[in-house]
Predict the 3D structure of the following.
Amino acid sequence: MRKCFISYKKEDIHYKNYLINKLGSESFIDKSLDRTIESDNGDYVMQVIREEYLADSTVTIFIIGEHSSEKEGYDNMGDKNYFIKRELKASLHNGEGNTRNGILGVVLPSMYDKIYKGQYYCRTCGNQHNYVDINDDTVIREFSANYYLKPHNGCSWSEEERYCVLVKWDDFINNPESYIEVAFKKRESNLKDKVRIRNLR
Ligand SMILES: [Zn+2]
C-alpha cells in the first residue's frame, strides 16, 4: 500500500485511529502538524512541513467531518483550521526531492447529507448530474479548489478533471487501497498545471 498521511480534526481522531488499526501502522505517517513555523519564506515553511511531518507519504487522506470546513474554522479566537490548511497546502506543494501528494477526501457519515444532495437535471447538456456540495460550508479551500479545478469548460466535472478524489467513509473502508491508488495516480496526471495553492500566511 502507498504510504499515507492523515489530515484530520481532533474531534475525528477515532476515525484516524481506526484506519491505522485496520490497515497497519506501517502504511501511515502517524503525525500531525502541531506548531507554527515562523518564516516569511512560504516555500521554506512548506519544505519544513513536508520533511518533518509528511515525510515519505505519497497520499494525504483528508478526513471530512463537521469541523473541517472553511466556515467552521473561524471563531473569535482566530483560525481553528490553521493546521489542516497547512497540511493540505504542504501536501499540494511540489518540492524538490519531495513531490506533491495525491489527495483523498473521505466524507464521514455525519456529513453525507450535507455533501451528497442527489441528482439534478442539467439544462445545458440534458443529462443528470450528481449534486455534490464541496464548498466553504463543507471543506477547506485547499480541497474544494482542487476538486473543482479551473479553468473548466462544460457543465460538470469528470473524475479525470479533478485533482482531489472524494469518497464516502463506508465505501472507502470496504476497499481502501483502491481509492488510495486512484489518488496516488493523480500525481502523474496532466492536471499538475491546474492545481491551485492558496497563499496562506
Ligand atoms: Zn450538464
